[in-house]
Amino acid sequence: MREIFRDEHTQCLPSPQRERSYAAAFARIGVDYDHPTMPLGSIVRRERVAA
């Protein structure tokens, strides 16, 4: 698992892409990765939706 986080290519990516790369790498080995290092509150904006 350490090699997933130490991958040089992944370290150069912006945060959202880096987290997706981590999730994909963990999925390949059968582990559910829940984006624990991503501050989702800073990128997710909730807006009102007219029903």
Key features?
3 helices; single chain; 51 residues; mainly alpha
Could you please describe the fold and organization of this structure?
The chain has 51 residues and is an all-alpha fold. 43% of the residues lie in helices and 0% in strands. The chain contains 3 helices and no strands. The chain has helices at residues 2-5, 8-11, 15-28. The chain is flat, with a radius of gyration of 14 Å. The termini are far apart.
Question: Summarize this, please?
Answer:
43% of the residues lie in helices and 0% in strands. The chain has helices at 2-5, 8-11, 15-28.
Secondary-structure element pattern, one letter each: HHH
Q: Share of helix among residues?
A: 40-55%
Most strands sheet: none
- Tally of helical runs: 3
> How many whole angstroms does the radius of gyration measure?
14 Å
- Structural class estimated from helices and strands: mainly alpha
| Coarse shape | flat
What's the end-to-end separation, in Å?
44 Å
| Mean pLDDT metric | 76
